[in-house]
Design brief:
The chain is α/β, with parallel strands linked by helices. The protein has helices spanning about 15, 55-70, 80-100, 105-120, 165-175, 225-230, 235-250, 265-270, 315-325, 340-350, 365-370, 440-450, 455-475, 480-490, 495-505; strands at about 10, 20-25, 30-35, 45-50, 135-140, 145-150, 155-160, 190, 200, 215, 255, 280-285, 295-300, 330-335, 355-360, 385-395, 400-415, 420-430, 435. Among the domains are: about 130-220, Beta-Lactamase (2-Layer Sandwich); about 225-440, P-loop containing nucleotide triphosphate hydrolases (Rossmann fold). A hairpin with a 3-residue loop joins strand 2 (about 20-25) and strand 3.
Length: about 500
């Protein structure tokens, strides 16, 4: 079904409206801005695209109709999106010349943008897919503003609205891009887009009364790193150095927290501390983890063919069993919720490093969840887990921020009371927004003892890593591949890197 052309706010509005924030999404002139909604007093995400005058809209409509008649290639079946985009641009230029359509080069560029956007890419939401700060994109039905989840501003409406026929067509297109099919007969679909983003679709009014819906869980090609977390004061260099040493020696760590508390972001950023040549297997429901390592297998669960609950389902438990046959050094499970937790603990007990996250509000709640249905971890296995770190979303000076609020080590089981023994290493102080170190880490003491490292040498290691992490944050070394390169350099020539960091901090 052909979608009716519609532009978002014009580039002229960029100057005529008062925005609290504005940023470039795509060269040369696709922007997004944050405005304050006068009715709700909340934030609104405003997409700003090139302006088309009425005669330019007519020209676009005419060129679109000619394209449908003369194109002898399905642009969606070309080898790549870039190739399809180039093919379409050349076809538009040929049509303008052959049909003697009088348009300036600037107008042709705008028409090419809209036709490429709608015919090859993601239509109205295409620009949102370029915003690395956007995590989720969701449409609750026709004639309702599209909502996004933004890393900085969280949930907010946009100025993008689909009409009913347009939304139905777009949902079918998303299914097509994922290599799937959706229809009235099979109106629900869970699938993945080529870039790794996860989509959940419903079609028509069979299961969602307002009409078709879609949710896109974005795959982060530019994930937040430990440098970002230090910059945001989510944690400090001392905490990061602690995790670096613990993870290097295969400590088993679970990150706990509530919804949108930063569990996955923290998990992903800490994964960069796994030694560069270790074999890593990640196991997730939705592809979110993005590591700088080469020796990394990314596994994603599959719902099944056709629809939710379809045939040939592959769940986290299946993936984890398969991972154990591949001799990984580290297994990372995006979030433990069910039977896969027991298999993960067995893997950790046999020498594999394990990282994961869990939905819980405190270290005690995390341990209780692990022991309860449906995970059922025996208490005797709990000391296999070395560290539970908690993340929280808190409000500081009217700004929502994330904090690593507690870091607790699992020491053992009391032989008399059978209670789990713990040691709190770090905690966040909300009164002055600082992180407090207890002065004692059982995990690091065990690492020193097992590896025969004297305390002075170990303390020097901690200080050197704090120095490097502080330098990375101050030098804006924040992209995940850049952070990975620094960590790799540390293992090849630590003295040189420490000197580079000292020089960088002193200049």
């Amino acid at each position: 079904m052909e979608q009716e052309f519609e532009e978002s706010k014009s580039t002229d509005d960029k100057d005529s409206q008062s925005f609290s924030d504005i940023f470039l999404l795509k060269e040369p002139n696709i922007h997004a801005a944050i405005s304050r909604d006068p009715e709700t007093k909340g934030n609104k995400y405003v997409l700003i695209e090139p302006t088309l005058l009425e005669e330019e809209k007519e020209a676009l409509k005419r060129i679109r109709e000619i394209l449908y008649e003369v194109l002898d290639v399905n642009v969606n079946e070309l080898k790549s999106r870039d190739e399809a985009s180039e093919y379409l641009k050349n076809a538009i230029k040929r049509i303008v010349a052959a049909y003697k359509i009088k348009l300036g080069s600037e107008v042709i560029d705008k028409i090419q943008y809209y036709l490429t956007r709608d015919l090859i890419f993601f239509g109205k939401i295409d620009a949102l897919m370029y915003d690395h700060m956007t995590e989720d994109i969701s449409c609750d039905g026709p004639d309702i503003p599209l909502y996004i989840w933004h890393r900085k501003y969280e949930s907010m409406p946009t100025n993008i609205i689909f009409k009913e026929d347009e939304l139905d067509a777009f949902v079918v297109r998303l299914a097509y891009l994922a290599g799937k099919h959706i229809s009235i007969a099979s109106p629900m679909l869970d699938a993945s887009l080529p870039d790794g983003s996860r989509i959940q679709l419903t079609y028509g009014r069979e299961v969602t009364r307002k009409g078709s819906t879609f949710t896109i869980r974005r795959f982060r090609s530019d994930p937040l790193t430990v440098s970002d977390l230090i910059d945001f004061n989510t944690l400090d260099p001392h905490i990061a150095a602690y995790f670096w040493l613990a993870i290097e020696r295969k400590a088993n760590i679970i990150i706990g927290g509530g919804t949108a508390s930063g569990k996955t972001t923290t998990l992903n950023s800490l994964s960069a501390f796994i030694p560069p040549d270790n074999k890593i297997i990640t196991i997730e429901d939705t592809a979110e983890l993005n590591l700088p390592h080469e020796n990394w297998i990314s596994s994603v669960a599959r719902i099944g063919f056709g629809s939710v609950g379809g045939a040939a389902e592959i769940n986290l438990f299946d993936l984890l069993k398969a991972a154990m046959r591949q001799r990984p050094d580290y297994v990372i499970v995006g979030e433990v919720r069910g039977g896969e937790a027991y298999t993960l603990f067995q893997a950790m007990a046999t020498g594999h490093g394990g990282l994961s996250s869990i939905h819980a509000d405190s270290p005690t709640a995390a341990l209780n969840r692990l022991e309860s249905e449906p995970m059922n971890i025996p208490r005797t296995l709990l000391p296999t887990l070395n560290v539970v770190a908690m993340t929280r979303k808190v409000n500081i000076k009217d700004l929502l921020v994330r904090k690593v609020s507690h870091i607790v080590e699992i020491v053992g089981i009391d032989p008399v009371s059978k209670e789990v023994l713990t040691n709190e290493v770090f905690k966040w102080n909300p009164y002055d927004d600082s992180f407090e170190y207890s002065g004692k880490s059982i995990v690091l003491e065990q690492i020193m003892e097992i590896n025969g490292i004297d305390k002075k040498h170990f303390d020097d290691e901690v200080e050197n890593r704090k120095l490097i992490l502080n330098w990375m944050e101050k030098s804006k070394i924040r992209r995940y591949n850049e952070v990975g390169a620094v960590i790799r350099e540390y293992y090849t020539d630590p003295e040189r890197l420490v000197n580079k960091a000292k020089l960088g901090l002193s200049s």
